[in-house]
Write a structure and sequence with these properties.
single chain; mainly alpha; Growth Hormone, Chain: A; 14 helices
């Protein structure tokens, strides 16, 4: 039996994610090398930059999600977040000190913090429960497709056209602007009755106990996570040429984009819990191997398997959030989910 088409909002938001990650991943894989080779700073500074940026984004995801529930509209916050990131991101091309990179990443992550929870709530509101895994899987697949195109474009501009890192950063403004335009004209807010929360809503009052238990489990797992930027440095230290880092990053996202939709559908049929557990086992195996093996071939293989972990868990974890809470609290619930993941990952950054 042919499954019905997904709501246009899901496809449109997927396109916005594709273009945004096209822009972001023309820049992000190059930042570790740019910081160390061009600005002369070490991995510890990279950890500070990523930690501050992600912590800021995580806090804003809670507030923006709760506010979107309160006013009953998601698109204005989603638009504001994408616009801020698209304007700020290319400004890293002007950086002459690591503090400048911190400021740009801080602004970029503020934008992500504003948009993420309302966007996920908008996706959940646009599909039936039996299609949630499929919808979030498609959004993640298109997100990662952009993350494939971005590094390829960066590689061609660096190795083929001979442009500098800074020139590549400036050119990343083009897909970012296209993402904002796509959101403005293609995504429509279905609207919802405003749900003024009870007192203490930012403390999670009113959220079901099963959702709180889910957050605790996710938090414990995420405490063992680390920034992917460190994995890039590990690959370079193990023999992957720095010029090939964008291609390695792109291959990692090819795996995620190829499997995210299919594994999202599997979560609708087989069960989200089972799929998430399998993904977490893959994650543990990859990190154990990263601490043992050496050589470029091993690094490439581990990044590909690591992509399967992401494809299995990213969409299913988000769909699980929507399964646990009523529609009027989904923005708040997604805010708590993103806050939990972000702050739990901070110690490892």
């Amino acid at each position: 039996m042919t499954r019905p088409r997904l709501h246009r909002n899901v496809v449109a938001l997927g396109l916005v994610s594709l273009l945004t990650d096209f822009s972001s991943d023309m820049i992000y894989p190059l930042l570790p090398v740019f910081l160390t080779a061009t600005l002369g700073v070490g991995p510890a500074v990279l950890g500070i930059i990523e930690g501050v940026a992600e912590a800021t984004a995580s806090l804003l995801k809670l507030f923006s999600g709760a506010w979107s529930d309160r006013v009953g509209k998601k698109k204005p916050l989603v638009f504001a977040g994408y616009l801020l990131s698209s304007v700020a991101r290319p400004l890293v091309g002007f950086a002459t000190a690591w503090g400048h990179v911190l400021a740009v990443r801080f602004s970029d992550r503020i934008g992500k913090g504003i948009r993420s929870s309302p966007r996920d709530a908008l996706i959940a509101a646009s599909v039936s429960p039996e299609d949630r895994g499929r919808a979030f899987g498609l959004q993640r697949a298109m997100d990662h497709t952009g993350a494939v195109l971005g590094p390829i474009a960066a590689f061609l501009l660096l190795a083929g056209a001979g442009l500098s890192y800074r020139s590549v950063f400036f050119l990343a403004a083009i897909p970012g602007a296209a993402a904002v335009a796509a959101l403005l004209f293609l995504v429509h807010d279905p609207g919802a009755k405003p749900s003024p929360p009870e007192g203490g809503f930012l403390l999670g009052k009113g959220l079901p106990p099963v959702f709180r238990h889910y957050l605790l489990i996710v938090s414990l797992f995420t405490l063992g996570n680390a920034s992917d930027a460190f994995l890039i440095l590990r690959a370079v230290d193990s023999g992957v040429p720095a010029a090939w880092v964008p291609l390695l990053w792109g291959a990692f996202h090819v795996v995620k984009s190829s499997f995210s939709t299919h594994l999202g559908i599997l979560s609708d049929r087989w069960g989200r819990k089972q799929l998430i557990v399998v993904g977490w086992i893959l994650y543990a195996a990859c990190y154990a191997a990263w601490g043992i093996v050496e050589g470029a071939a091993w690094m490439v293989g581990l990044f590909l398997v690591y992509g399967l972990y992401s494809a299995a868990t990213e969409g299913a974890e988000r769909a699980f959030v929507a399964d646990f809470v009523p529609p009027g609290m989904r923005g708040t619930a997604f805010g708590w989910f993103h806050l939990t993941v972000g702050l739990s990952a901070l110690p490892a950054s």
